[in-house]
Protein 1
Amino acid sequence: MASVRRVTRRLAVATLLGALLVPTGQAAAAQTIGYPTFSGPAIPAPPVGYSTGSTLRAIYDAESGGTDFWVDRLLARPGNDPAGTWLMTRGRGLFMNTHDPAVIGFGGNAAYWDDISGQNAYAITVGTALTEQASGRWQAPSHWKGVYTGGSLRANVTKFITHNNVAVTNLTLTNTGAATTTAALRVTSPYATTASGTELTGARRVKNDLTTIRPRLSGDGFTPSGGALARGVTLAAGQSVTTKVVMGFATDEIPESTTEYDAYRGRTPADAFGAHVRDYNRWWADNIPYIDVPDPAIKKNVYYRWWLMRFNHLDVDIPGQDFQFPVSIEGVTGYNNAIALTQPMHIDDLKYLRDPVYSYGPWLSVGQSSKGGRFVDNPGDPENWSNSYTQYISEAAWRSYQVHGGQPAIVGNLARYAEGDAKGQLATYDTNANGVIEYDWGAMTGNDADAVSFDWRPGNLDRAETAYVWSGARAAQQAYALIGDTAKAGEMAALADRIRTGVVDTLWNPSRRLLEHKHVPTNTHVPWKEINNYYPFSVGLMPNTAQYREALRLFADPAEYPVFPFYTANQRDKAAAAAAGHPGSNNFSTINSTVQFRLYSSVLRNYPNQWMTAEDYKKLLYWNTWAQYVGGNTRWPDANEFWANWNASTRTVDYRSWIHHNILGSSNWTVVEDVAGLRPRTDARVELWPIDIGWSHFAVNNLRHRGVDLSVVWDDPADGVTRYPGVPEGYSVYLDGTRAFTVDRLTRVLYDPATGAVTFPSGSGSVRFSAPFPGLRAPQDVAHTGARLVDVFAKAGVNLSSTAPNLARGAAVSASYTASGTSTAAAVDDLPTNEPLWGTAGSPNAQDWYELDFRQSRSVGEVRLHFRDDRAANRYRAPASYTVQRWDGGAWVAVPSQVKQPAVARGNYNRVTFTPVTTQRLRVVFTHAPGFRTALTEVKAY
């Protein structure tokens, strides 16, 4: 956010006539800020050089025999961290919302998706008061190390959290004295207090009652004693003893959390540490593209941002429609929710992780939990719900599909989500039916008190953020076209055209040659502006003519829109608002630089002009990186929620907000798509269209691109220096480690893998090498078969394992009871969103049934059931049990050999297979959970 959320402001009338007058002449200044200066120690170099295969894999392999890895060294934070004591290591659900290094073990507020109860995970004491020596602290992404001393004891501590939520502490106690001493070790946890053999166990519901964690706590040589674990250790002078404490935060929905706990419990401390750091760093080799750029500060920031994506990622598979899909979390040390506004920014970066589950999960999640309408924040955390009219999830989701591809059924979901959002936004906010959304409150994510236009006059404003509704409609159009639904594609094209006409006709002010929000009550253009006014240029909505390009002139003047700080508000307008009594705030954050990047990325390609240049883009890239570092020191990256009080004379930021290591905004995509130039496409060709910022070299290595590994390498032939051994000078693309083509310069290039032909759509160049690569496919020709992605899409109603038709679609449906506001048809609309649904709330029956009549005999051997779990309304839960029955012509009989996955019904996705039967009618009989009734969001039969 650009300032603290939930800001409430009184919107008053600005009566100054002068506020209506905006100069319309040429911009008088250029972006003169120059470039930042970085400080800090030398940034660690990789242990091996560039590879035309997987460079990160080569880096990992070079060090895999030990426990010291390049990414850990690159992002290590030694000593007393000025950003705070935040613990970098985390699991897919478990992390420390706050971290107290004074506690041996995991002190602070333990969290499972969010703070559980404001208590330690567990604490270890040794019978003697020990004090942590901050100078001995060393933290890497994979683990934390510390030194504690007291009396004649020294404790060397190493701790980490595994992927499947196991918190491990290795403790080496040393007697530094001259006499033998005994240490009374004791481990306590508020979450595990019941003795069970040599363990302590417990159970705790997490925040908002989303799931139950079942902690298990044990230690090497420890036994339960008085609600704690205890062990005595006698140490001779100079003697050391190493032990280990392990706590698993197990849940029913993640069985790996139990098996991983058992595995780490059985390992020696050294083996446990080695297994973890190798697993953690192998993830980088498996998922992250290696990126090399000339400036070490920018290179390190790229990897820091990749780590932020992992640190702010939630993958807990909670059954239902809350956090069942892997999602990107906006600020695990702060608001901690899947905020709709920021999801597309994250998706734009996440799509360049090699596993598509990272970028597909967020848009599946929001699509599944938005009732088939406009996108809203994740319902798992209703306290942090916000308005969502400034998000471009559909646009970003479509780009993620262009990168990773997949079965056409994937696109079918995307198309319907995007259509629902575009229509839903207009239905909610376009109350005057002009194709432009309007609202009157600036206290929304990404603007808060920084958005100046809302203070001009009270009342609704027609808003330029409508551009994102247009890009969503366009995404729906393209997705429908890809799966051959021409009717829907045409409908969405017409909707997009209506929105475009509404934006241009309503918001273009010809007298000032600017896009301006319009005050609806008086039909007057609003002269106070934000960067938001330029969203129509960012998404390509505006016609590319001289009169409209004139609006871009303000970006040549740092008094209007400086490259840095990247503010929300136009600075002249902000001053006018302050003079009129509405100063608001004037913060800046990575969300704002993301908006600027998107604008420059579009304008430099689609709206060329004399006011915005590649040099400005380069400055933005450098200052965005500088802002991530505390004081510009590359030792201490800290992506705060926002920053304030830029001191131009000292070139310092005087305030960094309270949320640390936040993933608000995005920027790694800029290196891939703008600097390296890779453009997502919907056909099998590869397009490069770089923004030349004068770098002599760069490499983006081992992207997963529609089923193959793709690398882009630039080595300027003009300087005669070969920077990447085995790679020729020039601008090259490699596919699966094999060179596809090389051209002589940074320019727009189009490559056809079927023929090897290289063309230059808007420029010139010389082809130095090209060869066909028939293995590269169009997105819709890619088939994803990995178990995890198959499972995730099954939960969204997509069967990636088979192309067999869903027999429930088109079936006649009936039920024993149907609650008001629900319908039997809602459960066979082929999309298991949280609503619409068929429900039985109010049913007097202990059992109810839902029937499918196929209208003719069909062979059926599988049924998929999506149960609603509406924790907020508290009416529906998965049934206590269910049975699939067929009609045998005279009676209902159970189908034979039913195998249910899971064995006990859960919220959302359940699958039952059985010996195939031939029948016209099939039904499912539900025994309701005590105190609840059953609802279905979808039934599928195969």
Protein 2
Amino acid sequence: MRRIKRSLTVAMLCFTLGIAAQNNPGKKTVVVVDAETQMPLPGVTIENTTSNEYLFSSEEGSFELDPKQNNEVVIKITYLGYVEQEIIVDANDIPSRIELEVEDNLLDGIIITGYTRQSKARTTGSVAKIEAASINTVQVSSVDQALQGQVPGLYVASPSGQPGTPGRVTIRGIGSLQDQQTTPLYILNGMAISAATFSSLNPDDFEELVVLKDASATAQYGSRGANGVIVITTKRGDNEQKDLRVTYQTQYGFSNVNNSKWDMMNTDQRLQFEEMLKDPDMPGWAYSRNNPYKIVNGQQVLKTEQDYQEGDYKLAQLKQTNTNWKKKLMRNGITQSHNLTFDGGTDNTQHYTSVNYFKQEGVLYNSDLERFNINSNIQHQSGRLSTNFFVNLASINSHVSESDFDVSETNPVASLYFALPYENPYDKYGNLTPGVNRFGTNALQMYQDVTRKEKQLRGVVGSNFNYELTEDWKLTSTIGVDYAKISNTHIIKPDTYFGDLVEEGGQGMYSQGDQTNIGVVANFGTNYKYRWDAHEIEAIALMEMNRQKYDYYGFTGYGLIGGLDGNAGGTTPGTPENDFIPKISGSTSENLLLSQLALVRYSFENKYTFSTSLRRDGSSRVPSDNRYKYFYAFGASWNIKQENFLEDIDVLSMARIRASYGLTGNANGFASDFGYRRLYGPGQYNGQISLVPTTPGNPNYNWEMNRILDIGVEFGLWNNRLVGEVDFYNRITSDLFVDRSLSITSGFESIADNMGKIRNRGIELRLSGDIIKQSDWNVNVGLNFAYNKNKILSLGEEDEIITEDYSIHKVGESLGHFYMVRWAGVDSQTGAPLYLDKDGNVTTTFEPDNAVLVKGSYDPAIKGGFTTNIRYKNLEVNALFSFIHGMYRLNTGEFYRTSADPNYRIYNQSTSMLDMWQNPGDISNNPGATHPRYMTDRELQKADYLKLRNLSINYKFKDLGKYNRYIKEINIFGQGQNLITWTKWRGQDPEDDNNWYEYEYPLPRTFTAGLKVIF
């Protein structure tokens, strides 16, 4: 009955306004917009409380108002997600624009999903918005690092502290056996961009980020939406800003490494350890008075008193050197940024342009990044045609650390641990003295002799077009190009320690590789949105083309000439006689994705919404028989708070239930763009150049498919002082991309195939509440929590697939579960290491066949974060914590620094090795030095952590007196990134994107102070 009365009221109001429009020239159009973004709000309810009539804003956020002459009208404006507003309108002073403020903490507002935008109250999918203000000032060299802890289910694992290294981003778990196929799709202003392009953007240009997680939200992207979608909207000009607004922001600070877990031996401890080893090749025992022998011509002879005195002198000399390798090999890296923006606009044209410079020195001397960004966004309305043109250009120059992720002396992080404290890197003339097993000195020498440089030129250029055929029907199109030119250079100088080690001639090398990636996106379609009474229907149909092209060529030349070793002209032409034969490589590839899409949504008031999508994708990467696939989704939402039975429950201010189910896919797991075909490459046969098979091909290769069920509840309590969102999901990935082993008689080791299923099932929670909510004083806290259970349901005909030496994919277990021999301690009588066999029996024999499933995997089951925002007048303090639980990693560093056997004792050791077993009856977890050391689950450690990821303090000066004519606002702020980590992990930082720790570049702490001035 209430619906009928409201419909009749709306109809009468529309009829009355129509008659008035014909007879009263005073009718005026009013636009309702978001106060912060200035975006028009469609479907806003406008209630004339004077006459008890209702009206709704159009797609452009407009409605027509016509008060009777000399009368005042009281109108109440309500929109889910915004503060209700009641205003008095005078016939002689009708406003042209009404701004609505977003209601604090309410899980609502306008959501942009790439193909459409609408109120979250009318969405049926699981979507989460990241306000750009939370990342605009964060000082990170790769913007994805700023997303950790922001949204439940969104996990960012940073693999390296190397400036510019992107993180591994996953949404709702890992759904593929291939790690590189877990990255979400990134959409920038409606067009798809690569993950590398996203990481190179300037976060200060972002207006908002929206994370699409379930099928109802992601199925519109078909085969590209299997791992979730992140939609980025860049800042735009303000049509109310008639005059040009100029904003300048700068930050300056430094980065260093948290060494709270550092426990390596100093000189005294190292010499004591060597004396315990009784190794005559080490000075701690060779010169010790407890050692009665010396080695002469390979034979033991008794020492004389002179030998003892000489030994005392040499030990005293060694003890004068206690090199702090952390200070030698690492530094405080300087970070700075400068950002200048210009924006403004009129009713028809709005513009925004920014120029950004960012420079960050790495904590290792041979690493840094320098980035220059230009971003521009222009919107224009001309009659029925509206356009948006955007361009983002980035020039990135970086120096890259040698051999990151490598257990070798060419990795300076490894040398940091390997180097002995009594090693003096310089001779008496101050020159470096590199050599065999001089790990610290060699690392210092490498800083001088080895250079790795990377230059990137990235550009995104795109346009969005909308043409209104009628008030309800418009044509839409997006065209764009994502371009990247990447050049990598590796130089080893001649006539140096490392130049002499180059196998081809021993005179250094110059290597360069250049690759070009071009992605082209074009779509064209139509959007129909019609409202009548309390009903709304939206339909979208479009065609889309995505094309990717890749080219690469590279060469390595040898025999560098001193003075010319900085460019390719310094290489010596190769001949069979001089051993300087260069190496040449190159490749090219491309793929094409053609799609057709249909989206339909029906909403009744803000109460019921039903949606469906259907997409047909055709990929050139798939064999012709399986080339085209259909992807779909169904969703529904119900705003139950608007039902009569909940209207009188005042404690409940908002309640919404939604559910969705759908199918998405992935076509990017093939070995290459043409991996389904038998491929050939250059080779030799019978001494002659020929083509040889390189991959067997598989004409039956198919898509990887994702079926996702999601059920969610959103609620607000006590007038939305506390709001929350809970989601349950079940995601099953089938037809997994697997490299299936083949018989060696086939000539190939494996074949790319589809088999098996993975399930990711979990629950997500988001809470946000105002503890204090006053005009001058506000305290807000928030929590997001996600639990995901990853399980392999099938591996085709296989029960398990061993992926590496110490991990396995096994049916019934999570991906990449660790598979190792178990450690059982140390025999107190003999000092021998003890192990468990497959049956759990203690043995002294290490046998790889005794490996079993142990502890866990590297993908944490629990992820989340919590925030605190405190505001008092113009002072604001924000803190972001992130946490994970259930992550295990193999700590190879722990293995090397707790090994006394002859293979590893040349490296410096942990101070815990001073407790090594020496005599019968000793109780120790470190075996005797005479026993060999093997990797077991002893090195498998929990990598759980709680991090204070960001802390910022901001003070705004707005009342500047007479200077407000020139300066509208001044912000002074300071912040810290990656400040404190609480963890049991025995290393510099537990955070990483893989299951092994191999002396990765440590994640730094960054402290900056900044200034923002708005003119």
Protein 3
Amino acid sequence: MKLFTRKVLTVALASTFAISLTACGGTTNTDGKDSAKTQSEPAKETVKKEPVTVSYLAVTSQLNYGGIKDLIAAWEKKTGNKVDIQAIQDDQYDNLVKAKLAGGGDLDIFFGAYQKYDVANQLLQISGEGFESRLNDVALQSMKYTDGKIYAFPAPMGLATWGAFYNKQVFKDLGLSVPKTMDDFNKDLAAIKAKGITPLYFSAKDGWTMLQHRNAVNGIVGGTDSSIWDKLNKNQIQWKDVPAFVDQYKQVEDWVKQGYINKDLTATYDQQQQALVDGKAAIVIQGSFIDSELMKKKADAQIGFFPLPNKDGSEKLALGGATQVFIAKNSKHAEAAKDLLRYLSDKEQVKSYLEKSPGISPFKDVDVSDKLSPAFKEIQAVVSAGNIARHGDDAYVVPLPYDELVAAYTELLAGRITADQFVQKHGDMYVKNAKIAKIPGF
């Protein structure tokens, strides 16, 4: 996910609304001429709209962060409206939303990315909202569609990034330092394996957790040459023509051969977290959202972070844009939905969310740096140094072939295909999706 990108990826809220109707009474002469009022003007009457129920479709995992359910409950109490929170499994989410949009089903608020939808015909245009002046440049740019208009509210989540979360105690006990290059990284993995500890722990029970490695690779791809995304979008080059991309998957193939990856690929996300905090695994490649989950597992766990190393040792992080929250263009409760999302993106609510699930704030007026964990402070240091790259899902126009990509990743990690075969499959599945989406040049 920004995933999803993550990118991957939570929101919905707003405030109260009511309309006032005024009536004034008077008399009229039978000949049509106005006469003086014979009675005093009645008091103005305020007629409140009946409470409504706003549908809010979220990926199941999103609802675990930032106390989002409590924030929504506060809006319900404030307005009298209700929110029908529908938690959808990650691998079913996109298809369900698309089906509702295509079939005219009851749909108000949902998440996603512009390239997944017929923007002008399916999403409500909301340009001119107050949040625009509050977002930092990266976040604001991510909210704009190709026509320059905005069709999404920003979720209160922190900006996501991806890389290697590691157990500092394991590294300290083995006398290891944070790797900068691929060679350094592989030497560390060999030393960790020699001590009977799992060097890298992948969770493949749910496909989205496995794809966080792909999100980390995206930062290296864009960081090497930002024009790569434009060339890929125009089909001027293929994925196999991007050395930084190919190198990363050749490395994965080698990890499998060397036994650096856990043997049980059916491990759950929960098991992955537990293995890391317990020191049974040294490193997991995940999204920044995992940090708060690790602290819940073991508050005194010593967790650090470093960007996924590349060949030359330059640090690059893929920084995701603000998480986009949409309102269906045919929503029956568009005003209430906007009110809900305004509420969630208010300074107070954003601060509350980020204090519970700390991250890189997309809002200039919200600073939670004093709440950051040691791992997040290391992420912030890379970001502050400017060593960031645009996440591929924000730059690449071809829709993500989720199911096919999960299948290919599983085959690669299981050692059933080589890196070259993976890269070819990866390129083919994106070309197929580009043709289905009728993207020019494919």
Protein 4
Amino acid sequence: MPKRQDLKSILIIGSGPIIIGQACEFDYSGTQALRSLREDGIETVLINSNPATIMTDPSMADHVYLLPLNTKSIIQILKEHPQIDAVLPTMGGQTALNLCIEADEKGIWKDFGVEIIGVDIDAINITEDREKFRHLMLDIGIPMAPQATATSFLKGKEIAQEFGFPLIIRASFTLGGEGASFVYKEEDFDELLTRGLEVSPIHEVMIDKALIGWKEYELELLRDSNDNVVIICSIENMDPIGIHTGDSITVAPAMTLSDKTYQKMRDMAIHMMRSIGDFAGGCNVQFAVSPDEKEEIIAIEINPRVSRSSALASKATGYPIAKIAAKLAMGYHLDELQNQITKSTSALFEPTLDYVIVKIPRWNFDKFEGSDRTLGLQMKSVGEVMGIGRSFQEALHKATQSLEIKRNGLGADGKENKKYDEIIEKLTNASWDRVFIIYDAIAMGIPLSRIHEITKIDMWFLKQYEELHLLKNEIATFKIDTLNRELLLEAKQKGYGDRQIAHMLGCLESEVYNKREELGVNRVYKLVDTCAAEFEAKTPYYYSTFESDMEVNGKRYTDNESVVSDKKKIIVLGSGPNRIGQGIEFDYCCVHGVLAAAECGYETIMINCNPETVSTDFDTADKLYFEPVFWEHIYDIIKHEKPEGVIVQLGGQTALKLAEKLSRYGIKILGTSYEALDLAEDRGLFSNLLKENNIPYPQFDIATTADEAAAIAEVLDFPILVRPSYVLGGQGMKIVINKEELEKHVVSLLSQMPGNQLLLDHYLEGAIEAEADAICDGENVYIIGIMEHIEPCGIHSGDSNATLPPFNLGELILEQIREYTKTIALALKTVGLINIQFAIKDDKVYIIEANPRASRTVPFIAKAYKEPYVNYATKVMLGEKKVTDFTFNPQLEGFAIKQPVFSFNKFPNVNKKLGPEMKSTGESILFIESLRDDQFYDLYSRRKMYLSK
């Protein structure tokens, strides 16, 4: 059946601010859905409160409402747009589903004659209500673990007595496994049961008999209204049952499943999807499989919507699940839609992978001091990376190189853990770094059987690790001059980086690179084509690998599928994995950079490794390289593509920290030069620049030892703000008020970051903090926005409520801010964006820092003022336009407030005080007409509550 003709206008509900458990994968799915609907001429109306996303860009939907996600906002929109025919709630995660259900229960959809499409409310209720779901599964013959529901403490105790330990407690109607826990011992049960009952909005928990050591799998399905079903992807969790899938290392396709069991699992998944309701769209099904020859299958849960895993599956297969799911919701059938990659086959096909993908989560435990760092049923990661390779080993290495945690891959980088007791502890209580610890355990000589016994990770994966270790040992017996081609090629095929090989051989990374060139061991690029090259792919979506030579007609060559055009081209470096301090706002900037460069006639090339984002969608840039934002990978792509230059100032600190190497290798950085970027980061040089321009800054000095810090403190006076240089998100920043605190913090920082310079600033207590973003072309400066923070100076800008325009700064202060912003932007020879932060005390404006790059606040200002500032800034970086070529016309009645959102509920025992180190995971935007607004009054009255010294 073709598209329904009665659907002319559709409302999409977004997922709101980023929190742990619900990140930018829903920006990706929502953006795809909006594009998909508009392709068919549907009017789109979007509600979402997150200003940092591409999804809420004015170009994405016909009508964008940056409003709180509640039924009051829904009613407002439906009154303004009586033409809305339907609502699509499956693209905004649990937040959108919950809001849709609430509106349904209140009769709002019925009152306005709006149909719910893409999902069935009954299906949601069945899958979220664990008791109903269990009964349905048993009715249709799908095995489940022994389970029972408790709606009271007493009932929970009775179930535990009947089942015995270990047990799993899962709270009903929650996101990211919130309230879920493994209970090994009876003495822990009461507290964990109470927490589960409290967290569940309906005060209900499901108690399962724990399936210790069972393996976990996921299948991604799509179904149309004609009941055609396709399995898009199988995903295997390397970690066994007991660790939330969002915190697990996952592999696609499934590696250790027999074909017979896989076919059985497929049939069960399709049967489950059909049984929960009659809807067209995406679905994610999770299973447990016994680790013995029987391979018994037990269903865990089913999610009748696009999910975190469907973003991963889309990037893994090249099959755009959200885009197709939106079409199915409009009434299309799978056989009527095109395969988006080949453009010649239909969407009614199951992707085939001739490569392996590995996803590794990215955690930020360092931001939650005192947090429980073990992994369990409650998700704790803030982002993820994905590696694509021809083998599991290559993909695993690429994923570890993408994490940006100062590791060069698995082992062979001098950072291995060599403490036996610590290794055993981290294997026993799954730790965030277990992916590295397994390698360290093998290197220490702990038998695979013992590692398997402790972790229950399948032997196949452990043997893959062992092979890597044995190869490392073999290479270490050579020197760079004696290493043969065969062994070097094998190391590269298994994902070892040049830096790691250099570590094994005791030489420089550049020597390994030169050796590779000399021996002809070069990267080739392969297409992600959904169909294992059985059909020609039209979409330029690549990953790199190493191949043995082939001989054809006496000529030896390797097959490189990335054809280089003769067009002028630019590369945009992406921002890598989401983390606290560097979130989705930098992906927004990268996407806009790509689109602006395309408008200027450039072929655009994107390099990024984050599977959740719009920047890694196959049709955002002209060419996508799904690769680590890691020097070796980037340099090879640059040599292959020969671009006009590289844009680094849109991808946050990830891209910025590669500027020095790009500059050293003579690669053109588009926009602000490396020298200017470095000058802004070097506190000594930057202060000299301020001094020359008569611009005030807080007294400061630089220390490299605890003794130096103590001497500086004598001069500066407490309180003192201590921070390491070259970090993002205020990492390691702290305000200290006496010598003991100073010494303790300095010693701690220097042990974590040896060789780093520490900056000691006299802290301006009680000062007001403000910041400005501007575009500069080297001659002209336009300030796009000045924001005043509601919280006083000392709380990280990312954790502050930032008000646009300022609400409490006099004209004298504003004039100083404008003058200093322009002076600094020009003095740094900025070409593109710059963000400057200020402290105001006794009517005097001090400079805290300047960052000549895109900042966290640029998307917020762009949304508040309805102006495409990143587009303008990119055209300035490319030299296509001057600032004076644009007609700026900001539109904002009243005020816009950027409100931080925290995920402290994932870490119940953590200190929630705010300070100079950023802790928020996302943000929302609040529009108010005047300062008399109750919400502003409430924020202002609480401004000093969290300030910690």
